Predict the structure of histidine kinase.
Amino acid sequence: MGAASFWQFAGFFLSLGGAVACAVVAVMLLTRNGNPRREHASVIVALVASAAWCVTIAAWGPGTLPASLVESGRNLAWLFVLYRLFGNDGRDHSLAPIRPLVFVLALVECLQPAVAILQFRFADVKAIAELAFSVGALFRALVSVGALVLLHNLYAGASGLSRQMLRWSAAALAGLWAFQLNLYAVAWLVGYMPVELAALRGLVIAGVALLFAIGANARAAELKILPSRTVAFQSLSLLVIGAYLIAMTLLAESMAVFGGEFSRFTQVGFLFAAATVALLWLPSKRMRGWLRVKAFKHLFQHRYDYRAEWLRFTGTIGRAGPEAPALSIRAAQALADITDSQGAALLLPAEGGEMVLAGHWQWPELSTSSSSCDAELAALLERTGKIVELDDVRDSDDAEIDPAVVPPWLIDDRKAWAIVPLIHFERLVGVAVLARPPLARRLDWEDFDLLKVVGRQLASYLAEQAGHEALIEASRFEEFNRRIAFVMHDIKNLASQLSLLARNAERHADNPAFRADMLVTLTKSAEKLNALLARLGRYGAAGGTGRVPVDLALVARRIALRYSGARRVELTRCDPCVVKADAEALEQALVHIVQNAIDASDPDMPVFIDVSCDGLQGRIEIIDSGSGMSPQFVRDKLFKPFVSSKEGGFGIGAFEARELIRAMGGRLDVDSREGLGTRFATVLPMTTAVGPKADINLQQEVA
């Protein structure tokens, strides 16, 4: 098979392929749902005309009269598509000069059938046939030049948003008209149609159809074909080496004009030297480094400006001063700024292994009580370290994470976009939840890589803060224990002295009245001091000893009776409820809570006590309408020793109350809203058997 036969054979199959591609894309656009753009119908017509032209070439050949006539119709259809593209931003009405140019190009193309008929009518007259062929090729080249000028004005004058919509369509038309310009320019110069280029026209039409199919996709504005760094660098290296060798070959060939044996020797020697230098110099480390920098700087594009992102991240995290938000809020904001999210939340580990809300940025709908995730999801994120895209969990049956593991509030809230685990030394330090950005999109590989790196950096900051707080708390406890040791020593001495005084007073019988009064006073003082020592000695001791059945209703009445003379402490509900507890420790804990509620409320606002049970647990709630506390204060400071919201407060009451209740096997729940008030709920396990001596003293005192 000769070269001409091979190209004719290849042109036949390429033309059929181009026809099939145009037909498939036309049908796809015709059946596509949604709001079509203004050029939609004209593109379908142009694709149908292109498919008919490809079939005509495959049936009758590229140089026949039917192929030339159908090609004119195809060109007119694509010119109309080009004109309709100006309507995307309304410039088909405002740019009046383009209409005459389009009209002239269409007129020139309409003259093409007459030239083609003249060429084939006088094919036996060589001079007329050659002139007609030359004029036809020149007309087609001129139409291509005019179309390229229009296309340049279309894209250069478009807005940024319009360019994103026009990118694929403009690339398709640029390829079509540029190829036609080169084809007919060569044909006009050589006087005949080059068979190699003519055979490739079906492939070009298929590429045009493919680009229009991509441009019709709703996400085409976001789609970018960008090579990786490795591909960009290796391609540039091959291009430079190839260009270098070609240039050297042309230079050596040009020396053949001198003739002679010396010229031949010079050619061979120069090629040998050039190839050797190229192979030794270009693979050098320094040269590869220079090529890599140039390739990455000019040929590769990232979604993020990493320098700017890092500067903004460090600026947000390092913000200091009294007006600066807490680290949890700054961490959420720093992560949200990277993906342009409209909000973010940070969840930190609680004592039970679950994650609870620690802070949020521009997400006021979240609350501490409802925004949390259980230990199962936390363990999964710690084990895999994967960033979870919540749209995949909601909409896909093939999600890598079981939707049942994800908390319902994240599934139901469409604002929630992604879950980012914050891992430090293979340990989950926290979980960040990102809100959806204004421009909805899917996370890609670059998002995942950057969020993972930033997440690890944030995890290190959070771990450092937790360690710092633990050291401060330990140092404060050490100081507190040292002071308490001195206090206990002094109290022991005082108790011993008073006990000795009481014993000496018993020996004086001269004044019975004095002796009796002194004995009673000293005995009660010693009992109180010993009781104080007993309470102080409970700090750090193991709880659970001395628990007896206690009726929460009797405890609530006793506390209300205690404050009856000073403040209003009212019982809203007082169901009988017997629990296992240490009566003295329970009352001490509840007194702490009631006193805090009284201090936080206005003088005319009562504090309510509510006692209830569900058959398994007893519950006593203390409710006030005071100033309330922020979620951050409840989580980070309420139960921290030496931290108090009251001026001059020691900050150990809430901590002591919680520890006493925990020692009895119960728990202390807090629900507070700033400006509305606070609810403390003490929950203790109930007992089914009440002994005959159960809290007799307490019942007698209340009665």
